[in-house]
Specification:
Length: 136
């Protein structure tokens, strides 16, 4: 954690994974390491790990990379906040709009419950889930 009055420098990492559900675990581990770098407690680390993993899982889907237009890209930045963006081209696991439900289960509910600053955007055939957490 930065000392009182000290400027926080930006630190970032980007990870690109194939659309393989087995690779989501790797991104969870990276997210936990980035959250630990922010010097937060383990509850914060677990929240970030879970949210980033869930976002990746939603965008990985169940089909192969060629059918969905490429890999899932994850960017994490430590600035004034921990900012995470998870992006993928093509279709996503949840075919319905983010405000609806599929068979009574709203696929975005876990993310909305974990993160106050959460946004879903769709543009030019890609979907981006943006999340951020305040840093002390």
């Amino acid at each position: 954690m930065a000392a009182a009055g000290a400027a926080r420098t930006t630190t970032g990492i980007s990870v690109s994974i194939a659309r393989d559900p087995a690779l989501v675990r790797t991104v969870r581990l990276v997210a936990a390491a980035v959250a630990r770098r922010a010097s937060h407690d383990e509850e914060f680390v677990e929240e970030v790990r879970l949210a980033v993993g869930e976002a990746c899982a939603l965008l990985v889907g169940e089909t192969d990379e060629s059918a969905n237009g490429g890999p899932v890209e994850v960017t994490m930045r430590l600035e004034d906040r921990l900012r995470v963006a998870v992006s993928a081209n093509g279709s996503v696991a949840a075919a319905d709009p983010p405000t609806s439900d599929i068979d009574g289960v709203e696929p975005w509910a876990l993310l909305r419950g974990l993160i106050e600053d959460f946004d879903i955007s769709r543009a030019a055939g890609s979907t981006t889930l943006s999340m951020s957490w305040a840093l002390a």
